[in-house]
Each structure stands twice: as structure tokens, then as C-alpha cells.
Design a protein that fits this description.
It is built from twelve helices and eight strands. Helix 6 packs antiparallel against helix 7. By secondary structure, it is mainly α.
Length: about 425
């Protein structure tokens, strides 16, 4: 080590060689990075594209940074070449050589304004010149390279991801449009036709925006400082894809209607016919109930579902004229309504025939108690015979007073229980003795 100079102590031969080796390696790394950036597909696309918005602004800054990179790199290369020439003078450099190497490798150098004033969109004015060491030049170049690569890599990632996916989705959209037209789903005639048109316009606009302003669709990764750290923003694409999937399902539903509409119409006719027959049976049963049952509130029976029959006729017309997009929602509505109509008809029949069911239950109960009385040898009991005859006349007469008939059955039932209870108690010990 020699006495200190303007840049510090004079380096030894070994120190000078190590510094020169390190700076040469950095020179090669910077040169390699610059050449890779020059050949980057994203850069070539950016240079040939008609850019707008965020991308146009940031690419202008990145181009300025690349220009500065090359200018400063040339200055750096010249300085390194000069230092290498000094080192190559002698195998064992003199003290003057080492002092000169120390100044070249560690000392500040004047970088002219022509190398620095490409401008990267800052607010400061043009710089006339700046003093900086070779290590400082490397730091500058690394910063400018990171700034340029961030723009190039982000744009390339968006262009690699979105346009191809948009094109594939557009191809699928055209296929769905063809199917939609084949089943009558068209704009202005069906909601899915209108949605198809909106989705087509959205995809067309989205592709144009992605091509012209890719960085508007770039989401930087949180906390990442690496160039190109982030991912393409696919939210608009995803929304269009979901809309197309919903439309495709709707078209598939319409297509399935075209395939099985005849079977579904036949089932609807059958269900409505059964509902009409059930209502007719209920009306007939109501007349019978009114004739046979007295003092009973019998609900009125509604008429056939005329509106559903009219809709069924319309559905048949839609099928005849291949208007599948109209037939599909109508069939779904009709199927629900027809099933509800059949359930309603059955409920009305049950409500109308309820008095007859009550009379049948009373008749069965009366005969069951008569059989029980006969089983215990009490069939000839005068009181039981009289009460049975009264109840039977009421239940088998027309019109039948259900309330009075039920009271008569209960009187017979209670009388039978009173007669049978003592006999059952008397027979219990005898049965016990027989067992013993």
C-alpha cells in the first residue's frame, strides 16, 4: 500500500488485478443483460405496437432508460479498456501505473450530459455532466435495466396470457352463436341473444385494449421488487367467460327441449287430462254427497284449468314452428303448473268425499261392535238390538245425518261396553280355574 491519493490509498498490484477482474465480470454481465433485453420478444412487440394509456407512458420511460443504458455502458466500456491498457503495460506495474489504475478503477469519472439526457420522464432539468465511479455506473445501469425489464416483462406476460385466451373464447362464442341462431335465440328476441351480443362486443373491446395497453391489465405482486413481478389481471376475461358459460347452458337447455319436447308435451297432456278427470269425479262425488249426506258442508269444485290448456296449445304451436327459445321457458312453467293442478284436483276430491269416508268409518265401527256382541252371546239383547237398528237406519238412509248417526253409533258402542264388561269380569275367574 502506498501513500494516500485523491481516491484513497494507492492499490497494490493484487488489489488492482482483483478490482479489474471484478469490474470486467460486471461488464460482461451487463453486456449479456443488454443483449438479452435487446432480443426480448416483449421489447420487439412493444417497439412495433401502437400503444396507448399506461403502456405508452411507461414504454416511453423504458426506451429512454435503455438509451441511457447503452450510452453509459459505452462510457463504462471505454473506461475499463483504458484501465486494462494501463495494466497491460508491464507485468510488474510501476508505482505510477498503480496510482493511475487506482484513479481509473476507484476514482470518479465525468459522464457527459449527452449520455444522461435521454430522459425518463422525471421533472428535473437536463444534466450537463456528472461525476461517478465505475461502481456507481454499474449501479445506475442496474437500476435502468430493472426499470426497462419490468415494463418489457409485464407487457410480454399480458400479451402471452390474454390475447390467446380471448381468441379461444371468441371461437367458442362463435360456436355458441351458431347454435343459438339454429334454435331461434337472437338479439331482440331472447335475453340470451342480447347477452351474446354484449359478450361479443366486450371480447372485441377487451382484445383491442389488451393489445394497445397491456400494462393496464397487469397487477404487480405485493411486496415484490423483482422486475416483472406480478400477474395479468384476467377479471374482465373471467367475467366474459362466465357470461358465455351461462348462455351456453341456456342454449343447451333449449336444444334439449328440441329433442324431448314431444315427450314432455305428451306428459303435460296426460297430467292435465288426469286433473280434469279428477275434478269431474269430484263434481260427480259432490252431487252424490249432497244427495246422501244431510247437514254437511260440502265444498264447491272448481272447473278445469282453461288457462293451462290454452298455454298447452301455444306450446304445441311453438314446437310446430320450431320456436324452441319460446317453448323452453313455457314448458318449464307448464310442468310446474300442471303438477300443481293435479295435486289441487286430488285435494278437492278428498275434501268432497270426506263425508262419505266418515259414513263408511261409522258403518265399519257399528258392524265391528255388533260382531263383538254376537261373539259374547249378547246378540239377542233387546236394548242393543234397538240401538243398533236406530244407528243402522241413520247410516243406511239417504240423506244421512252424520252428526246424528255418529251419536247413535256412540250410544250403541257405550251400551255394548256396559253389557260386555260384567260378563268379561265373570268369565275371568272361570278361565283361571280351567287353566289350573
Amino acid at each position: 500500500m502506498g501513500p494516500a491519493g485523491p481516491t484513497g490509498p494507492v492499490m497494490s498490484r493484487e488489489e488492482a488485478d482483483r478490482a479489474l477482474e471484478r469490474l470486467t465480470a460486471e461488464h460482461e454481465a451487463v453486456e449479456s443483460s443488454l443483449l438479452a433485453l435487446q432480443d426480448h420478444a416483449g421489447r420487439r412487440l412493444l417497439e412495433g405496437a401502437r400503444l396507448t394509456g399506461t403502456t405508452a407512458h411507461r414504454w416511453a420511460q423504458a426506451e429512454a432508460a435503455i438509451t441511457q443504458l447503452w450510452n453509459v455502458f459505452d462510457h463504462y466500456s471505454a473506461a475499463l479498456t483504458q484501465a486494462q491498457e494501463v495494466r497491460d503495460r508491464r507485468r510488474w506495474p510501476s508505482r505510477e501505473d498503480l496510482a493511475e489504475l487506482t484513479e481509473l478503477l476507484r476514482g470518479p469519472r465525468t459522464v457527459p450530459g449527452s449520455a444522461l439526457n435521454a430522459g425518463i420522464g422525471g421533472t428535473e432539468g437536463p444534466r450537463l455532466a456528472e461525476e461517478v465511479t465505475l461502481s456507481g455506473l454499474v449501479e445506475w445501469m442496474n437500476n435502468w435495466y430493472a426499470q426497462a425489464l419490468d415494463v418489457v416483462a409485464a407487457a410480454d406476460s399480458v400479451w402471452s396470457a390474454l390475447p390467446a385466451r380471448i381468441d379461444l373464447l371468441a371461437a367458442e362464442l362463435r360456436r355458441v352463436q351458431s347454435l343459438a341462431h339454429s334454435v331461434g335465440v337472437r338479439p331482440g328476441e331472447h335475453p340470451s341473444g342480447d347477452e351474446l351480443e354484449r359478450t361479443t362486443e366486450e371480447l372485441t373491446a377487451l382484445r383491442a385494449e389488451v393489445v394497445a395497453d397491456p400494462l393496464a391489465f397487469w397487477t404487480r405482486a405485493g411486496g415484490s421488487s423483482a422486475p416483472g413481478g406480478g400477474r395479468p389481471d384476467t377479471s374482465r376475461y373471467d367475467s366474459a367467460a362466465r357470461a358465455l358459460e351461462d348462455i351456453r347452458r341456456e342454449i343447451d337447455a333449449v336444444l334439449s327441449v328440441r329433442q324431448d319436447s314431444e315427450q314432455r308435451l305428451m306428459r303435460l297432456r296426460d297430467v292435465l287430462s288426469r286433473a280434469d278427470r279428477t275434478l269431474a269425479e269430484a263434481r260427480e262425488a259432490r252431487g252424490e254427497v249432497l244427495a246422501k249426506i244431510a247437514a254437511s258442508e260440502v265444498p264447491a269444485v272448481s272447473g278445469p284449468a282453461t288457462a293451462l290448456h290454452e298455454q298447452l296449445t301455444s306450446a304445441a304451436e311453438f314446437r310446430r314452428h320450431s320456436q324452441w327459445h319460446r317453448l323452453s321457458p313455457l314448458l318449464e312453467s307448464l310442468e310446474r303448473s300442471a303438477d300443481d293442478e293435479l295435486d289441487r284436483a286430488r285435494a278437492e276430491l278428498s275434501a268432497v268425499t270426506a263425508p262419505l269416508a266418515v259414513r263408511a268409518e261409522l258403518r265399519g265401527r257399528l258392524d265391528a261392535y255388533k260382531a263383538k256382541v254376537a261373539q259374547h252371546g249378547m246378540a239377542e239383547d233387546r236394548m242393543l238390538i234397538e240401538r243398533y237398528d236406530v244407528a243402522r237406519r241413520m247410516l243406511w238412509s239417504a240423506p244421512c245425518d252424520l252428526r246424528a248417526a255418529e251419536d247413535a253409533v256412540l250410544r250403541y258402542q257405550h251400551a255394548a261396553q256396559e253389557v260386555l264388561t260384567p260378563r268379561q269380569a265373570d268369565s275371568a275367574p272361570a278361565e283361571g280355574m280351567a287353566d289350573s
